[in-house]
Fold:
Amino acid sequence: MATQPGRELELFPNPQPERDYTIRIRIPEFTCLCPKTGQPDFATLLLEYIPDQLCVELKSLKLYVWSFRNEGAFHEAVTNEILDDLSRATEPRFMRLTAIFNVRGGIDTTVIAEHRATGWNPPAAVELP
Structure:
């Protein structure tokens, strides 16, 4: 296979570092394993971030997410691990990861974790008529 999963995240310079803008990435095919049963857990990851100087390259993000496929992890732990890795790599002004796990055993789980850069304050919301 030409492409393999991996934990190396490639980055590129933010083309508009002077502006606060939001990047939203939907990852509908996240999988990991239940650490108790070994059964697969499926989730949709919603990544939202306001970049500072760096952005994450999407192919490397795909390979990074793929690297969790055969690892056992609790939903809360894997969500926070991914947020930590992405925020450490990109050093964004703001980042939120929402992990929406599919139903297993009659229960679905959503885990939301956030990162804010020290001193960053969101701009005031614009109310449109």
